[in-house]
Amino acid sequence: MTKVLAVANQKGGVGKTTTSVNFAAGLALSRRRVLLVDMDPQGNSTSGIGLGPDERTPGIYEALIAHVPMSEVIRETSTGKLHVAPSGPGLIGAEVELVDLPDRNDLLHRALKSVKDRFDYIVIDCPPSLGLLTVNAMCAADELVVTLQAEYYALEGLSALTRTVDAIREAYNPRLIIGGILLTMMDRRTNLANQVEAEVRTHFGDRVFSTVIPRNVRLSEAPSFGQTIFRYDIKSSGAEAYLALAREFLKREKATDTP
Ligand code: ATP
Ligand code: MG
User: Fold this and answer.
1) Does the Cβ of 12 fall within 6 Å of ligand 1?
2) How far does residue 17's CA lie from ligand 1's centre (Å)?
3) Residue 8 Ramachandran class (φ > 0 left, ψ -120 to 50 alpha, else beta)
4) Burial code of 81-112, b = ≥16 C-beta within 10 A, e = fewer?
5) Is any atom of ligand 1 closer than 6 Å to the C-beta of 220?
6) Does a cis peptide bond (omega within 30 degrees of 0) precede residue 58?
7) In the chain, how long is the greatest CA-to-CA distance?
8) What is the pLDDT of residues 176-210, one digit of tens each?
9) Is the CB of 18 within 6 Å of ligand 1?
């Protein structure tokens, strides 16, 4: 069974893309077949995984709106077992174009159906908003992975996110759960980060991954080379953390699969 994970938080710059790329790559290195879907018009996952400007069409936009089959949108990456469905320039105007379509919430879900069998996991990188592109990701997803930057305002906006998830579960996608919460850009030397971590763990309990992603400059450098952290610097603390995350996630999966 394929599981679809959406990495979401309407807050900007909280590690969604860094997590989508490197978590997806971590799963692929753990021998799972993975598709990374870039739903963000900024296209950071697409460039971060190494696709050049002329390799982005057809992309997700064409799959959603022009009915181009997903099989023609998907590209190989330099990480074996990891494929990507890129965000192209068309996606920038998509929120506006989608508004008038009767099935506007369900387009991604439908587009993915024909390729689902080829993958064990589909990881969707969402834009920093709760607009139609994120709603499409939530309608297609089994689970949300919410990234939180370990800083003072980390929990702000989470109630809006939770309300959106509840609304989507009721109206369109009864499967949807917030499956995991991931603390990113953690600096354990600061009291504040440790306090935020304690608060998040008290609030969300075991839904918070034990693995925490440290602040690591190698993670911020890798995308400019179009490389995952594993290719860019396998020995970095960032690579270690994202591999640990993939392992923790797979262990959880195994535990819930066992009757
Ligand atoms: P947006 O909301 O704009 O899509 P995002 O939530 O996808 O942003 P990222 O792009 O992953 O966030 O991260 C924001 C910035 O922080 C980027 O410059 C990224 O390289 C950097 N960054 C992310 N995670 C880390 C980390 N663990 N250590 C150091 N820098 C990081
Ligand atoms: Mg992003």
Assistant:
1) yes
2) 6
3) beta
4) bbbbbbbbebbeebbeebeeeeebbbbbbbbb
5) yes
6) yes
7) 51
8) 999 999 999 999 999 999 999 999 999 999 999 99
9) yes
Instruction: Please answer whether residues 8 and 16 qualify as being in contact, where contact means their C-beta atoms are separated by less than 8 angstroms.
Output: yes
Three-class HEC string of 144-188: EEEEEECCCCCCCCHHHHHHHHHHHHHHCCCCCEEEEEEEECECC
Question: In the structure encoding, which two tokens stand for residue 169, read together?
Answer: 């579960």
What is the predicted pLDDT for the residue at 51? 96
Mean pLDDT of the chain: 95
- Single pTM value for the model: 0.97
Partners of 82 in the β-ladder:
34
Strand partners, 166: none
Secondary-structure breakdown of the chain: helix, strand, coil percentages, each rounded to the nearest 5: 50, 15, 35
- Measured at the alpha carbon of residue 52, what is the angle toward residues 47 and 56, in degrees to the nearest 5? 85
Tokens at residue 207, please? 């839904």
Q: 220: CA distance to ligand 1 center in Å? A: 7
Is residue 200 a contact partner of residue 148, using CB atoms and an 8 Å limit? Answer: yes
Q: Which two structure tokens, joined as six digits, stand for 256?
A: 């819930």
15 CB less than 6 Å from ligand 1? yes
Residues in CB range of 47: below 8 A, 6 or more apart: 223, 226
pLDDT exceeds cutoff 70 at 258: no
Angstrom distance (rounded) from CA 192 to CA 17: 24
Which parts of 9-142 are beta strand (E)? Answer: 34-38, 75-76, 82-85, 121-125
Q: Yes or no: say if 71 and 114 are a contact pair by the CB < 8 Å rule.
A: yes
